[in-house]
Amino acid sequence: MNPIEKALKEGRKTLSEYESKLILKEYSIPTVEEILIRRKEELSDALEKIGYPAVIKGCSSEITHKTEHGLIFTDIRNIEEAEEAFDQIYEKIKGIEDMGILVQKMVQGKRELMVGMIRDEQFGPSVIFGLGGIFTEILRDFSFRIAPLSKKDAISMIDEIEAKGILGPVRGMPEVDIDELSEIIVKVGRIGIENEAIKEIDVNPIIISGSKPIAVDALIVLR
After folding, report:
1. Residue 204: C-alpha distances to residues 58, 93, 142 (Å)
2. In CATH, what is the architecture of 33-105?
3. What is the residue extent of each domain of the chain?
């Protein structure tokens, strides 16, 4: 049973971050390396596989704004820091039925983007691309297209945002891999087209690591 079927069977309207990224992986969208754990005893093994620096997050279909609730700890450098982060997160979410804790590889990169999908009642799945991170809603630098999208459509969307200059070689950072970024935009549109149960997709942030875009967080909302 895939995450969408499982959520609908359980009467849920939202997938957890982990479940959302399982859907992205089905479409070969590059995502951060991560392990979902439930118990503190699993933490050491997870970190051994992921490596340092790491990110530790609370994970549940009921959690949509992790930053505001203090459920994200970044730049974890050793097991002591990891255990302290685990304890603080666990205390806040231990009563949630599907709670888990994500141990993620920390993706290094200063440029953050987002790709999303909204199912419009008239036009169907509409894809959004723009600046990502915690200031997405404030900066509101976006472009839109109705799915399905061609590669040409996606590249045009990338070219339309006002901050497109950050995608080139800037301040010692390499030019963003536009081919791979445009593929992500096309694939998010495909997810909307091929999964009628999905109402919204929010892949934010997509961090540019070197030249490569990597989806670090994601949220899928069902109809």
Report:
1. 16, 22, 13
2. 2-Layer Sandwich (3.30)
3. 33-105, 111-222
Beta bridge partner(s), residue 185 = none
- Write down the residue that tokens 């949509």 correspond to: 64
3-class SS at 126? strand
CA 110 centroid distance within chain? 16
| Mean pLDDT, 10 residues at a time, the chain of 223 residues | 94 96 98 97 98 97 83 97 97 92 97 96 95 79 96 98 93 95 98 97 97 98 96
The residue type found at 41 is E
Q: How far apart are the first and last CA of the chain?
A: 18
pTM, to two decimals? 0.94
Tell me if the domain spanning 111-222 has CATH number 3.30.470.20: yes
Report the 3 state secondary structure along 24-58.
HHHCCCCECCEEEECCHHHHHHHHHHHCCCEEEEE
How far is the C-alpha of 166 from the C-alpha of 19, rounded, in Å?
Answer: 30
Per this entry, what is the length of the chain?
Answer: 223
**Coil, strand or helix at 112:** strand
Side chain identity, residue 195 = N
